[in-house]
Structures are given as C-alpha cells and as structure tokens.
Amino acid sequence: MITLRPATRFLLALLALSPAAALAQERAIELDDSRDSDEQQVASNEGAVFGRVRFLTGTITLRRETRILEDPEMNDPVVPGDVVQSGPLSRTEVQLADGTLVRVDEDSELVLLSLPDGSTGLGDSTILQVLSGSILIRAESMGSAEKRFQVDTDSASIFILSDGLFRIDVRDDGTTIVSSRRVASEIVAEEESAMIRSGERVTVRPGRPPGEAHPFNTRLRDEFDLWSSERDDALLHRERVDTRIPSGLPDPIEPYADELSYYGRWFNYPSYGWVWRPVGLASDWQPYLSGRWAWAPGGLVWVSHEPWGWAPFHYGRWEFLVGNGWVWIPGHIFSGGWVAWSYSPGYFGWCPLGYYDYPVRFSLSIGFPRFPWIYVRSRHLYERRVVRVVEPRYMAELVQDGRSPPVHGRELSRLGPGEEPVRVE
What we know:
Elements: H1 6-16, H2 19-28, H3 34-46, E1 51-57, E2 60-64, E3 67-70, E4 77-78, E5 83-86, E6 91-95, E7 101-104, E8 109-114, E9 125-139, E10 148-152, E11 157-160, E12 164-170, E13 176-180, E14 185-189, E15 192-196, E16 200-204, E17 214-215, H4 223-236, H5 254-260, E18 264-269, E19 273-278, E20 291-296, E21 299-304, H6 311-314, E22 315-321, E23 325-334, E24 339-344, E25 347-352, E26 362-363, E27 369-370, E28 374-377, H7 392-400
Parallel strand pairs: 9-10
Antiparallel strand pairs: 1-4, 1-6, 2-3, 2-5, 5-8, 6-7, 7-9, 8-9, 9-12, 10-11, 11-14, 12-13, 13-16, 14-15, 16-17, 18-19, 20-21, 22-23, 24-25, 25-28, 26-27
C-alpha cells in the first residue's frame, strides 16, 4: 500500500486542482509559427511530465493504474503514479525530463508520485517514494528556487537542495539511511530536520527524529555503487560522433543533447535551423519503424529501440533531405509520437510529420514520389517489434493506384491493449 505523507498529499492536491498553473504553462511557451500552436494542442492532451527507462538489466516491472507492465524496455515511458519494481539481480535507470537520473537497485520498489515538466521554466515538483530497497539519484538542473525535489520513505522526507549524487537505503525494519556524495539535502522526520553535505550520512529510525550527520568513506562501495559508476562511464568511453553541442536548442532538448552527440551530427539547415542526423543506420532506415507503440495516460507513446530514441521521437519533427537523408528538427513540446495516422479496414498506418506538420513525402528522382508510411494489420498495433509485421504490399498498392494514404487525426484516443482505436479529430 502506498501511503502519502501529509505534506506530499497537500502538494499533489495543488498540482491536480490548479488549472491556472496549466494555463500559465501554456502561455509561458511563446512559439513563432503555426505548427507550434498545434504542438500546444497535442501537449494539452498528453503533457510533458514523462520520463523514460534509460537502461535496465534483469527483471523490472512497472505498475501503472490497474495494469502491470512486465518486461519494459529501454525508452519505455514512465509517468506520475508509476511504481517501479526490481527483482533479484535486476537494476534500472530512469531519466526524468529535467535530466535527473534515478537508479534503482535490485529488490527495490519506487513510486513516481510527481515528475518534472521539461517543457517549461515554471517551478517543477519531483516527488518520489522509496518503499523498499535502495536508489541513487544524480540530480540535475536544481538551480531554480521554485524547483522542489522530495523523496519520501516511511520514516523521513528528504529534500534535495543542489545538483549532485546521493543515495537512499530503506531497510526491512523501516530505517532510512541517506548518504550524500556530491549534494546538499535536508532530512525531515518527526517535525525535526538535519542537513547533510558532501561526504556525510544520516540515519533515521521509524518514529524518531533524524540522527546526527557524520562523515563516511566515499571510497567504500558496494555492488550498487559500482554499477552506478559503470553507468556513468558508459558514454564517457564511447567515441563522440560530433564534439559540438549547438547553442540555442529548445530547453526540453538540453538534457539529451550530449547523448545525441554520440550517435549523430548536428548541422545548420537554412530553412529549419539546427538539425540532427543519426549515423550508422541501414540505408532503408526511417523514423518510427524500429520500435513499438505502448499505452500511457493520454494516448499511445512510441518506444524506440534505438538507444538515442527518446527526444527525437517525442519532441520536434523529421524531414528527408536529399543528400543527407533523414534529419530531426528539435521542438519544444512533448508528444507520444509526432505522426499522422491513417485508418483503413483491417489496417493502421502512420507517417512522420514534417516541419510544416504534413506527412513527410519526398522524391529521389523526378516523378517518383515516396510516401514513408508504415502499415500494420490492426491486430499488430501493439506488436513489440513493428519491423517484423509491416505490410509494404499495402503501401505499394496505394502508390501503384496513384492514391495517397487517407490521412486522419494525429492521435489515437486513450487506448489499452485489445481496445478498439477511436479516431480523434
């Protein structure tokens, strides 16, 4: 059973009952062209408070509302209310929209009560609850005075006050141990508080105030600490494709810009500004093909199987440039997938939306247009490997007949596996 501390219940109530805050968020983003007004419309349906599973090993389970999502994959979405459970010899890393990394040890249970909104500079609230086990948090972007990062356990509430790395362990008897490696935080229990800084540790026993902060040897590490260090080194030991990270990217893209530099190149295109081109892909690669559709509150979310495939499929648009191939144009607003949908008897199809919010089409030679639509049979909409069930013959018949695919609404309504999709106008 998940029990909320009184301060947490009050804060979540404010977040849920404040339409003015949602309106302020919408007005806070000033975009120049018409396609961005469409982005705001989609954002009102799906929101931006999504994180992702960035890495996992072993057996991880996500509980979402009344569903149990077994065998989540890299780039699966996580949303407020999700419960992350890890089994023996299993660990996972969750990335929040502000770039913060939350690493979950084996035999642990973590509740994501509230997540940050990466699309706006307004004050964010991140509230996590550790029910059992251990987590490590690499906090990012904590410079804003309006930002709140809180972690609850049965015996304490921990407030992170700066960027850095810290660990929370919850023992079987309910005792909470907070260890700070490179971060300042405040621990509150039984109406008393204690501050800890880098290299200090505090123990809180159930029903008692926090103990005194005392130093600990940061060089002594267990298997979880070593695994976390390996995750930190994973990208550092990989050769960058592009050493440049463009300035002026949309704020929600900043947490992912460094990661993208390992998998592609940035260049400035006159019509679009900065674009990113992935490298090392097959010649017939195209967006929204290597992956699957997953259910989340608000609609379907694309789960890419490319390791870099979070930001490029949820912010911005794709275009095909002759001589360069597929390029991604960063955007401000999150969506489950920036695609157009086509519904035909027995089939579903989708196509990447281009810069001007139309389905992408291009020609490699005069008179031979290409339509990068992807079609699957209706029963395969939730297939875990879309590339295995595509129906290229259906698309070929449309082209041979001189017909373009029938384009309908951008989104599918709130669906679960086995439910009949309903078009959203």
